[in-house]
Amino acid sequence: MAQLTCQDLCVGYDGKAVLQGLNFSVNAGDYLCIIGENGSGKSTLMKTILGLQPPVSGRILMGDGLRKNEIGYLPQQTAIQKDFPASVREIVLSGCLGRCGSRPFYNKRERQLAAEAMDKMQIMPLARRCYRELSGGQQQRVLLARALCATEKMILLDEPVSGLDPKVTVQMYAAIEALNRRDGITTIMISHDVAAAVRYASHILHIGKAVFFGTKEEYLHSPQGKLFAAQKGGEEQ
Asked: Global pTM?
């Protein structure tokens, strides 16, 4: 059963469409990469899925027991957010806020979840460090740990390796892949890196003048995928 289904979905702002005619579904354990040109509507689509803004038209259906408050989210960071003066532990724990309800404190289980998330992201030694003193790669691991505190089912990642150096980028991709394959967390990731999408994803949603949705293998045989392969071949010559 699909965890997420978009039916004739149109997304945009103030009733003005940015992207329309989307029909796709995501099953438990899938790794979907959303790719496309800047301004094509990738981040708008993700915010609409999260319920941060309403769709212009169409429907987003949740299935397999998934609820919107059970989706972890790693957004793109602003300069102000990168300078946030809180400890790593505090940042990660804040991912449990949706579990607290009306409680003004974190319980034992939520503190355990935060510890487990930090352990998975290999940032436990940084627990008492100030977030704004960390490197870009360390900050992204902290935010991914925070997203994990909100979910055991699905994470949405908006350009999670943006601004990272090549070595740290590879490490971040490996951490995300482990969450998907080892822990079975459904992953939806926006990426400008088509090569990484082809390498890691099980499914690809390519948005632009034409929309493609299908498996990675199907993408490589599509017009968009063949264009990518031709460009990649030219770069290697």
From this structure: 0.90
